[in-house]
């Protein structure tokens, strides 16, 4: 008997009104551990109706009191961190320490959102005209929806809802069907922290739930993170139904390795960035662009033994801590394996082959070991497409100029890094590269919560990034009030100008 994961509506668990379910696996064992309900029209309607009913009272709650709920929520997240991280590992597969890291990055957004009384102050100008003042209000939108991917089941929802809720909105989260448990536990903790019923809802489901949310007239805005084709679809649908959207998509992140880089440090940075979380990160480095054959040869020589020695296994409950867990599903494992097969067929040199890996601890789930390719060419599918697995491609170029031209011609532009000791080269790279997030000797340059996260090009649709000031702007709408308290108002027939 597997358990069924339902929804969380109006401050309580809610069993689905239908029978459609999707299997949830423990990817380290390959076993089905539970089933998640897929929302019906009635579930969606109830979720949106209760969120709408809660939104007026929550919007009228003072920012200070909204912030106090978030302070309590942060304390609860910290108290239950081990439990939450274990939940992530059991359904996603990433190793426990990595799951703790994910949670920490999410908690940082809660900390940012606790500052909402300051962040939502708006602007004020005295005397924009004689006796006239002007001020702006940043008012909540009402009910907003978030649709999130499998690879960060806690952190990505936390990029969204702490800011949305802090701004006075109700939030309906549609998590990934692959790892839905942690979202439900987060909802329980929000209730425990004192969040009024209906302000945070978890609606589990698939495309039907997503489409219903986007089309519903009571949903004002949609935040999405996932693959590029779906991000584009969400953005187009949101535009069609007249609501604002931010839709973050896929990635192919390059790290440029200059000939003067500290090669040992660079290799260590690459190991974590390419193979951490089995490459299932939108900021994973999947391409190393070596400038000059000397740098490329040194990279390959030093990476090879390390990739072969990766400890691969169950991310929970080992005596020895693993460095890499399994992929999320068998379907995804087959897809990643297919890319490795294709890379070989296309003529790239497979230096380390992780297919059919024997795990360090004998685990037998959806595993692939680290894969390393040399001599990858820009025309290959291996180079062009997002693989989302532990596969690192080394591309050789002659100059920094070539590296910039190569990276600027890729369709994805989420993150990138340059490793060098040359400040001038790093500065030139940061200024000229057409990518949203840039690291200088930092392999995974994920901006902190008080900055904003987002790529360029086909890695994002919409003008506003996640969290930071952009998050506050996304979840509020500006109203500008121009006021005077006249003593003797005269009729004016010309266009009003300030005198
Ligand atoms: P996905 O696009 O398959 O799913 C994301 C969400 O969309 C899920 O909630 C899913 O239920 C829903 N969905 C899937 N198909 C849909 C459809 N046809 N119509 C409507 N909704 C649909 O993505 P995933 O496999 O869960 O996550 C991996 C992807 O997410 C990768 O491409 C990765 O790069 C990307 N990602 C991007 C960022 C970023 O910040 N840019 C962050 C994390 C993940």
Could you give the topology of this structure?
Elements: E1 3-5, E2 7-9, E3 12-14, E4 21-26, E5 31-37, H1 41-60, H2 63-79, H3 81-92, H4 96-113, H5 116-119, E6 124-129, E7 132-140, E8 143-147, H6 155-166, E9 170-174, H7 181-192, E10 200-202, H8 207-215, E11 219-225, H9 228-240, E12 244-248, E13 253-257, H10 263-275, E14 285-291, H11 293-308, H12 330-346, E15 349-352, E16 371-374, H13 381-384, E17 391-397, H14 400-408, E18 412-413, E19 415-419, H15 423-432, E20 437-440, E21 456-457, E22 460-461, H16 468-474, E23 476-484
Parallel strand pairs: 1-5, 8-9, 8-11, 9-10, 11-12, 13-14, 13-19, 14-17, 16-17, 19-20
Antiparallel strand pairs: 2-3, 4-5, 6-7, 7-23, 12-22, 15-16, 18-21
Helix pairs in contact: 2-4, 2-7, 3-4, 3-7, 4-6, 10-11
Nicotinamide-adenine-dinucleotide (NAD) binds at residues 147-152, 156, 174, 176-177, 206-207, 210, 225-227, 230, 233, 248-251, 282, 386, 388, 414, 455, 459.
């Amino acid at each position: 008997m597997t358990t069924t994961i339902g929804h969380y509506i109006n401050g309580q668990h809610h069993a689905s009104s239908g029978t459609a379910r999707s299997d949830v696996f423990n990817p380290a064992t390959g076993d089905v551990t539970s089933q998640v309900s897929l929302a019906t029209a009635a579930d969606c309607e109830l979720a949106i109706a209760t969120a709408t009913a809660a939104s007026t009272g929550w919007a009228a709650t003072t920012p200070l009191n909204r912030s106090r709920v978030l302070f309590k929520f942060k304390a609860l997240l910290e108290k239950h961190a081990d439990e939450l991280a274990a939940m992530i590992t059991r359904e996603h597969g990433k190793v426990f320490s990595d799951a703790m890291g994910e949670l920490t990055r999410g908690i940082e957004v809660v900390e940012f959102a606790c500052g909402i009384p300051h962040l939502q102050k708006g602007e004020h100008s005295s005397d924009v005209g004689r006796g006239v003042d002007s001020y702006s209000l940043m008012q909540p939108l009402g009910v907003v929806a978030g649709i999130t991917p499998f690879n960060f089941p806690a952190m990505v929802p936390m990029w969204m809802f702490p800011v949305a809720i802090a701004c006075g909105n109700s939030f309906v989260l549609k998590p990934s069907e692959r790892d839905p448990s942690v979202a439900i536990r987060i909802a329980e903790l929000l209730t425990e922290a004192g969040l009024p019923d209906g302000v945070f809802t978890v609606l589990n489901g698939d495309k039907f739930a997503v489409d219903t949310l986007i089309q519903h007239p009571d949903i004002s805005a949609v935040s999405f993170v996932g693959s590029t084709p779906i991000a584009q679809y969400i953005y187009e649908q949101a535009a069609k139904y007249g609501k604002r959207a931010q839709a973050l998509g896929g990635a192919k992140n390059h790290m440029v390795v200059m000939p003067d880089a500290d090669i040992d440090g660079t290799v260590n940075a690459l190991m974590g960035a390419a193979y951490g979380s089995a490459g299932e990160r939108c900021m994973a480095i999947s391409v190393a662009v070596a400038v000059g054959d000397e740098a490329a040869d040194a990279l390959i020589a030093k990476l090879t033994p390390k990739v072969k020695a990766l400890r691969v296994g169950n991310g929970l409950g080992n005596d020895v801590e693993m460095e890499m867990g399994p992929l999320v599903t068998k379907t995804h494992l087959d897809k990643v394996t297919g890319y490795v097969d294709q890379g070989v067929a296309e003529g790239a040199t497979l230096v380390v082959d992780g297919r059919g890996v024997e795990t360090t601890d004998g685990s037998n789930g959806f595993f692939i070991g680290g894969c390393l390719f040399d001599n990858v060419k820009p025309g290959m599918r291996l180079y062009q497409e997002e693989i989302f697995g532990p596969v690192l491609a080394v591309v050789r170029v002659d100059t920094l100029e070539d590296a910039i031209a190569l990276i600027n011609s890729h369709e994805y532009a989420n993150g990138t890094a340059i490793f060098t000791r040359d400040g001038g080269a790093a500065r030139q790279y940061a200024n000229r590269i057409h990518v949203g997030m840039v690291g200088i000797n930092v392999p995974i340059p994920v901006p902190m919560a008080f900055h904003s996260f987002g790529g360029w090009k086909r890695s994002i649709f919409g003008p506003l990034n996640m969290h930071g000031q952009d998050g506050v702007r996304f979840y509020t709408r500006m109203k500008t009030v121009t006021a005077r308290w006249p003593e003797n108002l005269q009729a004016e027939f010309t266009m009003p100008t300030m005198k």
